[in-house]
Amino acid sequence: MAGPVGRPRKQSSRRRGTNAREEILDASAELFTNQGFAMTSTHQIAEAVGMRQASLYYHFPSKTEIFLTLLKSTVEPSLNVAEKLAEADDPASLRLWALVALQARELLGQRWNVGKLYQLPVAKSEEFAEFHASRAEVEQAFRALAAEIVGPDDPRVELPFPIALSVSEMRSNDGVIPAPWTTDSLPERAVMLADAVLDVLHAPLPENRQARTLDLLAD
Q1: Which tens digit of pLDDT belongs to each residue from 85-119?
Q2: In this structure, which topology does domain 20-70 adopt according to CATH?
Q3: Which residues belong to the signal peptide in this entry (predicted)?
Q4: pTM, whole model, 2 decimals?
Q5: Alpha-carbon dihedral of residues 217, 178, 163, 82, nearest 10 degrees?
Q6: pLDDT bracket for residue 4 (50, 70, 90)
Q7: What is the CATH code of the structural domain delimited by 74-216?
Q8: DSSP state of 58
Q9: Could you give the CA distance from residue 162 to residue 152 in angstroms, rounded to a whole number?
C-alpha cells in the first residue's frame, strides 16, 4: 500500500489557521513580535508550527517573505478602505474618522500585536520596498482627508496616521484578540482614537459615526 502523500508534519499543529500558510504566519507573528526578526529563525518557526523546516519553504521562500507578508497585512486592508472612502460623498470628517477607526480595528482584531513590527529596524530595509510603497499610500490617504478639514499646510495633517497606529501601544501580545470583529460595532479603543483625531483637528464629531462607518463598508 502506498504511503501518505504530501509534506508530513513532525507533529500535530499547535497553531491557529485553516491551512499551513496561515499557521506559519501565526507562529511567525508571535515570534517576530516577541523576540524580533534577527533572533527568529525559520527553524524556530517550523518548530512552532509542528512541521519540518524544509516544508516551510514550500509555503514561503524565505523568512524575509514571511515578514513582508505580515507587514503588508497591516496596511492592505486600510488601502482597500481608503479607496472605498474616496468614492463616498460623505464629509471628510466622517471619512477620516472611519479610516482611523478601521485602521485601529485592524490592529486590534489580530491575535498578535503585528503593529509592533513597524518599530523593528529591519522593517526600514530596502528589502521591504513593496511594503514601504503601500504604507506611503495609506499615510497619504490619512493626510489628504485631514487636509480637507484643516488645509494642506497645517502640520496637523501628519497626526491622524500615527494616532491610529498608537493602538499598538494599548494592547497586549498574549495571543488573545483584544477586540474580535463584529458586523454591528467598532472596538471602544478604535472609536476613542478616531474621536481624538477629530478633536486634534478641531472638527466636530459626525452624528451616528459608528453606524455610518459600518454602512460605508457594507455598501
Answers
A1: 988 999 999 999 999 999 999 999 999 999 999 99
A2: Arc Repressor Mutant, subunit A (1.10.10)
A3: none
A4: 0.89
A5: -20
A6: very low
A7: 1.10.357
A8: H
A9: 17
